[in-house]
Amino acid sequence: MEKTKILVVDDESRMRKLVRDFLAREGYVVLEAGDGMEAMDLFYADKDIALIILDVMMPKMDGWQVCREIREHSKVPVIMLTARSEERDELQGFELGVDEYISKPFSPKILVARVGAILRRTKGLEVEEIMNAGGIVIDKTAHIVTIDEKPVELSYKEFELLSYFVENQGIALSREKILNNVWNYDYFGDARTIDTHVKKLRSKLGDKGEYIKTIWGMGYKFEVEV
């Protein structure tokens, strides 16, 4: 089986080596670029790149420019790295089609976990882009949810949470498992964030919110009433 290729773009060689070493341990093939121009040359030369880890502040072409040009040609997943953690930067990233946004300094283990989660998610899209569960229709490509043909406005995490529930219908899911898969890394904060999101999601789904069952002392299960 051919190994998955990941392009790491950062003008700091030490940072590239750190990320490369952790990814290589997981069996990924890592390509490296020290600036935006070199990144685009590699991107155009190799059509098998499965994911790009992209620093924002770089010479010649910054990360925003690189991402913008990539999105003109490809939907390849992009993780942005930045030393800044301002909301407007994050919003700009998502508007450009960034899949994840990680602020420096970060844990390489968390980065690797997010890479794995994104690759699993994007590979899953190729198999099933539209899901229907008890009248809830999820279009993962367009990022749209409808109930009885009426759109439901969900936040990014609410959409991810609902998708995860539907993909795992009938399976009891612990809060820890939900956090690791929807938030894409080992979450060290308060697990009640799950309960908050579920409460909001149930409310937005109306009667369909009853499909999300609470399993006391454990977590939740998505089950459509027959």
Classify the secondary structure makeup into a structural class: alpha/beta
- What is the first-to-last residue Cα distance? 41 Å
Strand order within the widest sheet?
Answer: 2-1-3-4-5
The low-confidence parts are none
**Major pleated sheet:** 5 strands, parallel
User: If helices are DSSP runs of H or I spanning 4 or more residues, what is the number of helices?
Assistant: 8
In short:
The chain is an alpha/beta fold and 226 residues long.
Could you name the key traits of this structure?
alpha/beta; four-stranded antiparallel beta sheet; 226 residues; 8 helices; 42% helix; five-stranded parallel beta sheet
Any overview of this molecule?
This protein has 226 residues and is an alpha/beta fold. The chain is built from 8 helices and 12 strands. The strands form 3 sheets. It has a 5-stranded parallel sheet with strand order 2-1-3-4-5, sandwiched between helices. A hairpin with a 2-residue loop joins strand 6 (130-133) and strand 7. The radius of gyration is 19 Å and the shape is elongated.
